[in-house]
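Provenance and format

Records in this collection were gathered into a single text stream. Each protein contributes a sequence line and a token line. The two records reproduced below are adjacent in the stream.
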Amino acid sequence: MTTLLQPSTGYRVTLRSRLLIGRSRRCDLHLSHPSVSAEHAVIWWESNQWWIRDLGSRNGTTIDGRPIRGMQSTPLTTTAELRFGCYPLPWGLESNTPPTPCAVNVETHAIIRAEGSILALPDEEAPTAVIYGSEVASQWLLEQGDDAREVADLEVVSIGGQLWRLHLPQHLEPTVERSADSAPHLAELSLHFEVSADEEHVTLTATTASDEHPLGFGSRAHHYTLLTLARARIDDAALPPASQGWVYQDVLLAMLRLDRARLNLNVYRARRQFAMMHIQNANGLIERRESTRQLRLGVGKLQIRKAGSDSLAPEPSAEVHRATPASPSPGEADSRTPTPACSSARKDGSGHSLPSEFSIIHPTI
């Protein structure tokens, strides 16, 4: 988190994606001084750098005593001294790190900051909307309910009857070749699931071809959702990679015996867990096809192992029969692991999607 510091007083202002400076109370940094214009200057993050521009103020903006000419965009460094008009105290940039995505409640001014590059609203315990960056399209996406759409910096969105102003870096960072000590990219990972005999516990680890030590994710309730999607992807191993593992959301809900809110919470928690482990492109862990409401696991290198066994689980072979999944009692979906009998209800033996009244039983691993 980067701040703008007033060295003589120690006063700090957190830098969001864009900071408007001026005498007007509409500004993010309000400087009550007669030489400061109503909207004097703006600081923003772009192309892996902080920038400043004078907005045509009467008394100008200087960097290390040199005026910014016209409306010129000027890069900022941590050693630069900023002055606005004749305001007596200088300012400086404390670090050149990117801003943390956040949302500000329009009415209460409460601030929600992203955790691990994922912004959950109205809070991370019970999010009804999730905002994250799409590495493929270099855009920010808002997932709310069953829908996903692009959102932009400073856009105001309605979440749960409240208005939130989004502060999002204007450009996602390009993918770079990682060094030996940097965090791995999602595409490099192999996921290893260890499943208890009763399928109540799913332990997840991840490895890469270049790293000796696996990443341990422990055992979490949302890992069963990942396991179910992993089984679907293994089941499609004969298909082209782009076609593997897609599951209709309604079918997945029946398989897991969850409601949509709980499924979305599991997706958020899984992505967030990977992001907190500094996995690059953690948001791609679960992929969505919005036009067909399908989901799949975004990792193709998978292993499933029964706890206590040295052998990998066999690829499932499908046996089709009619079954209507039992509806959970109120509150039950939030508290229990889905039964293994529903773990692969998705397709018929030819790979075609089934109506919701069909399910498939795979051999228990």
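Adjacent record:
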Amino acid sequence: MPDLLYEKIIQETQSDGMTYRLFLLNDPLTDPQIANRVRFAKRAKKTRVELHSNGAALSADLAIALVDSQVDTIRFSVDGIWEETLSETRKLPKKLIYGNIERFIEINKANGLPVRIEIRMIRQLGSDEENREFHDYWSKRTEFVIFTDLYELPPHKISRPLAMPCPKPQKEMFIRVNGDVLLCCWDWQGVSVSGNVALEHTLSLWNRLASRREALRRGQRAQFHPCAQCAAYSQEIHSGAPVYGKGHDDEYP
């Protein structure tokens, strides 16, 4: 995202208690300016900044910069402890991912543990034995080891739109790097573009979309795409796996 656009969004929305999640369908650590972006967002009191990464781009210099930036939370999606599982799911060597994350944990400890570090795994990707090994390994290194359920991005194979409320857009705004605003972070095709923050004030756009949020709160998914083909927050089945099921971390899929 261009610096001027990023700064515009932050300046127009910054208030005590705001949370910024600097990721959508990307890995924020590949952005060479990510530490500076965190610092810019953290200027307001009580502002929170959260990142989500696979850890592959986490160099030693970046680890130091991120701890110094006062980022609040970093979630690492590791998704395996066995080499063969990691090779299949992440297409990255275990030595790289584990080495980068463990180094970050040590740097964080050396600086008084300012960053909440979560290590995550999709439980369906490994066997029960691997899940136990994963938990035992990482629980010795960080307090937060989380297993989530496998989910699929829409469109889902459902016979008709669900008449079910969707909480996803009620408190969150999803902005692409070009300023386009989406109804949902799972709209990877960009079919729900509802405006652009480069062309109008960010909060004005948020307020203008209140009727859409209300419709989704009432379960009127059929009015919108990809909502009409989305089974999130249900027990619908897609490709033999629960789209959204028990044990899934609602806030951060």
